[in-house]
Batch of 2 targets.
Target 1
Amino acid sequence: MNEARARLVTEYIEECWHTMKVDLYNHPNCYCTKCGTSGYGNDCRTFANWNDFGRIVEVLQEKEDWEKFLTYAHYIAPQEVDFGYPVLCGSDMAGFSSWLFTNPARFCNLVGEWLESLEKKGE
Ligand SMILES: [Zn+2]
C-alpha cells in the first residue's frame, strides 16, 4: 500500500499517522511530533497483517460503513480497478467472501481504494 493510501486508512480508523522525529538524547530515541508517541522508528501501521485487518473491520462496523464498503468491494471495484479478483464474482458471495478474507494486505488495500473513491465523489 502506498503512503498516501496508508495515511488515508489510518485517518479513517482515527489514529495518528505519525511524523517521527529523532531525539538522540532520549530512549526510545524517536517521537511523533503530532501525538507524542515514542518509539524506535516509524511505528505507523503497515496494513499488511491480521492485526491491522481486524482493526479496520472493527471500525467499519462501528461507523456502520460495512455495507457500503462491501458494496464497493463486491460490485464496483471489479469494474473499476484491476485488483486481481476474477471479474463477475456477481452473485457468488461465498466465493467473494473467501477471497476477501484470506489476504489482510489485499483487504486493507481495498478499503483504501474505497476511501479514495469516496474522496473523489466528495463524500
Ligand atoms: Zn503520532
Target 2
Amino acid sequence: MTSRTVTRRPVTRARITALMSRLAGDESHTAAATSTLDVLHVLYGRILRVTPTSIDDPDRDRFYLSKGHGPMAYYAVLAAHGFFPEEHLDTFGAFESVLGLHPDHLLVPGVEISSGSLGHGLPLAVGAAHALRIRDSSARVIVLVGDAELDEGSCAEAIEYAAAAKLENLTLVVVDNISSSYTVHGRIEQRLRANGWRADRVDGRDQRLLEEALARRVPGTPNAVVAQVEKKSAQVENKSEAA
Ligand SMILES: [Mg+2]
C-alpha cells in the first residue's frame, strides 16, 4: 500500500457534524464526542492510509480509538468516509445496532479495536507498531487517548517501552480537555519528552497545525501530539443538572 495513492472521499467538517446530529440519545452530544472531532476529521481526511477497500490490507495504517466512550464523532467520520452505511447512525445505541456506546471491532467495519475500558489502547498500539516493524511494514499506528487516561499505569509502561524500542511508526494523540485528576499544564508533553518521545502541544481545533503534527515521523523515536481542546467541566455540569 506504500506506493499506492490513497483515494479518499472529500468530506467537510460540516458534513461530519450533520451526521453526528443523526446520533440520538443521552450520549450523543457529550464533551467526549466533540473533543475528538477535529483530530478525527484530519486523520481520516488527510493522514491515515486506510479506506473502506483496504481495511484488511496488512499494510494499512491503523487507528486505535483508545478513548472508546463518546464515539459519536468517530462513527460520523467513518460513515462520512464510507466505511459503513450512514443509515447505521440512526440506530446508534439501540439493542440490535452495530453502533454501540463503545465501538466493537467485530461489528463495525474500519474499527480496529474494541475500546471503552481506558488504558488499553496505547499498550495495544505499542504491540502493533512493534509487530509491523518486525514485518518490515511501512504502516503507521496512531492511537488516540484522553488526557485523564494517561493516569492509568498501563500507559506509563507503554510510554517507557515505546521510546526504548524506538517505535518511530507509532503516533500518540492525546486529546487534552483538562480532565485529569491532577492537571498541571504542560505535564503531558514534558512527561513524554522525559521518556524519549518527540511531543508537541497544538491547538486541537486548528486543522492545519494538527495535520502538520500528525504527518510527522521522527527518526528513532515515537511521536506524540497533545491536542488542546476546551475544558470539559461545562458540559459535565450541564449533564448532571439534566439527570
Ligand atoms: Mg479528558
